[in-house]
Every structure is written in C-alpha cells, then in structure tokens.
Specification:
This protein has helices at residues 13-18, 20-23, 46-51; strands at residues 4-5, 24-25, 34-36, 53-57, 60-62, 65-69, 74-83, 89-95, 98-102. With 104 residues, it is an alpha+beta fold. β6 and β7 (74-83) form a beta hairpin.
Length: 104
C-alpha cells in the first residue's frame, strides 16, 4: 500500500522537517505511530479520535493517555489534577511497550 502525504491544517515544510512521522502515513486499518488528543498538537487527528483509539501500556489498558508514540515506546499521561498556568494538565512521559488499537 502506498503512503499518502498529509497536507491538512497547519502543514508546511518546516513542520514536515520537524516531524517526520507527520509526513507520510499509510492510510490503513492500523492506528498511526503517533497521536495526540490535544487539538493544538500537530499529531491531533479529529477523525481518529471520533473513531476511538485504545491504548495498552505494559499490558494494562490506559484511559488517561494524552499522547503516545509506538516507535519510540512512550505514552504521555496526566499527572493527577495539576494544571499549568494556561489551564492545561501537567503530563508525565512513561516509557515501555505501547499497543494501540481501534475500539470500533
């Protein structure tokens, strides 16, 4: 299957240079290598979020994942109820095996 180039909102050459995972992504039934649920992130994809993505980290189902990367083996989860000065939740980056699947 050929990879397609994503040129949706906020795409530019500088963004592509900083984020190689963002450039080419095979459009298949497999979840993307990296995904975020924060709309200001370049890895945010509303269609995938509506479809539902499940994350297993070290064999345990996680429901509080803010962002993940399969190839680098990490997830970013919220650190309790703490917020930064802009009202965004503080996050912790945890490393280990990551499994991602579509719920539907």
């Amino acid at each position: 299957m050929a990879a397609t180039i994503r040129r949706d909102k906020g795409w530019d050459e500088a963004c592509a240079a900083r984020n190689p995972c963002y450039i080419a992504q095979a459009m298949s039934e497999a979840p993307p290598d990296r995904l975020s649920n924060n709309p200001s992130s370049p890895y945010f994809d509303a269609k995938l979020m509506e479809r539902g993505v499940g994350v297993r980290f070290k064999g345990i189902e996680k429901t509080n994942v803010e962002e993940y990367c399969i190839s680098e083996g990490w997830v970013r989860v919220e650190a309790g109820k703490a917020k930064d000065r802009y009202g965004n939740p503080l996050t912790i980056k945890l490393t280990g095996p990551v499994e991602v699947y579509f719920k539907s």
